[in-house]
Amino acid sequence: MNILLGCVLMSLSIIVNAGVGDDVTLDVDASQSSFVVQLAANPTTGFQWKVVKFDKKLFSLLSSHYKKPQTNLIGAGGEMFFTFTLNKGKSYPAKTNIVFKYARSWEADNSTVKNVTVNFVKTPKS
């Protein structure tokens, strides 16, 4: 039973980490007031997501929170949600980037960077 549990936990950690390094593209309706970036996270490992860089003239970071997984497995990863609000009265470019870093605070050299490309789209008025 312990071997089976160990195999399950190992496969979960591989799945959780598989998407960490992938870059993401997000389409955001420029007429909306906010948008959310959702990233796989597992704070039980000591790793945390941090917003490193974004254009503060276009939007602001409103909040961030972690949602734990629906499973009770020890060490299972969940998701981190970052909510950004669009600054009103701005002319939005076709796209911009947000840079996130996934790292442990005590290991400066052991981090993963994720680039999120935000494409601003305009929804036609009906």
From TrEMBL:
Alphabetized UniProt keyword annotations: Protease inhibitor, Signal, Thiol protease inhibitor
Signal peptide per UniProt: 1-18
Keyword Isomerase appears in the UniProt entry: no
InterPro entries given in the database record: Chagasin-like_sf, Cys_protease_inhibitor_I42, Prot_inh_I42_chagasin
Name recorded for this polypeptide: Proteinase inhibitor I42 chagasin domain-containing protein
GO molecular function: cysteine-type endopeptidase inhibitor activity
Pfam family, one: Inhibitor_I42
Gene3D superfamilies with a match to the protein in the record: 2.60.40.2020
Domain named Proteinase inhibitor I42 chagasin: residues: 32-118
